Amino acid sequence: MGKPPLREHTFISGDRLHTKRENLQEMKPTVEQTIELYKMCQNLTSMYLPINLVTIDERTKNFYLLAGEELEVLINPQGEVSIL
Predict the structure, then answer these.
(1) Which domain holds residue 41?
(2) N or C: less crowded end of the chain, CB within 10 Å?
(3) Minimal CA–CA distance to 30: which of 72, 64, 61?
(4) Tell me, what DSSP letter sits at residue 68?
(5) Mind listing the pLDDT tens digit for each residue in 26-71?
(6) For residue 41, which phi and psi values (nearest 5 degrees)?
(7) What 3-state class would DSSP assign to 16?
(8) Cα separation of 84 and 70, whole Å?
(9) Is residue 38 part of a domain?
(10) Does residue 45 fall inside a structural domain?
């Protein structure tokens, strides 16, 4: 098998340029998260709310979804949805 795919981030901290590489296989969502994310995106877009951001928190493994102007949604690895 080949090497796992990597995601690379480049950012500036102070006066230095840093590069961080992450293994994408470690950041896979659970089946429960994927189902709830799909349902949430479907519901939000049916209300004509734009989905501005979908990301996964590397520390907690929660999905974070930002929709409209201020609606924030968290989906934990067990698929439980919290609207903030």
Answers:
(1) 27-83
(2) N
(3) 61
(4) T
(5) 678 899 999 999 999 999 999 999 999 999 988 899 999 999 989 9
(6) -65, -40
(7) strand
(8) 9
(9) yes
(10) yes
